[in-house]
Amino acid sequence: MAGYTREFLIDAYLWRFLKAISIERLLELEKIANRTYDLYGKDGFRERASLDADYIKKYKEYLQCQK
Fold first, then answer.
1. Does residue 21 register a pLDDT over 80?
2. Is 36 within 8 Å of 6 (Cβ atoms)?
3. Is the pLDDT of residue 53 over 60?
4. Alpha carbon of 30 to those of 15, 34, 45, 65: distances in Å?
């Protein structure tokens, strides 16, 4: 696995919901994601958040388009 930071992985997870839920719900989901990361660590969080290599690739492509 590449050296993805905690922030990167949580942002990638939240990206999935950006257009689907309100900012208030997104902030709550971010808290849950942080607790999940604390509890299970990087690999456990990636597994539980379904952040596979293909999804990470799509998120990185999205970030490149935002520059």
1. yes
2. no
3. yes
4. 11, 6, 13, 23
pLDDT of residue 2: 64
pLDDT for residue 3: 85
Predicted structure pTM score? 0.90
Residue ranges per structural domain of the chain: 6-65
- Between the CA atoms of 59, 64, 66 and 67, what dihedral angle is there, to the nearest 10 degrees? 150
Q: Which residues contact 30 (CB under 8 A, 6 or more apart)?
A: 10, 14
First to last CA, the chain: 24
| C-alpha–C-alpha distance, residues 48 and 67, integer Å | 29
> Residue 31's Cα: distance from chain center in Å?
12
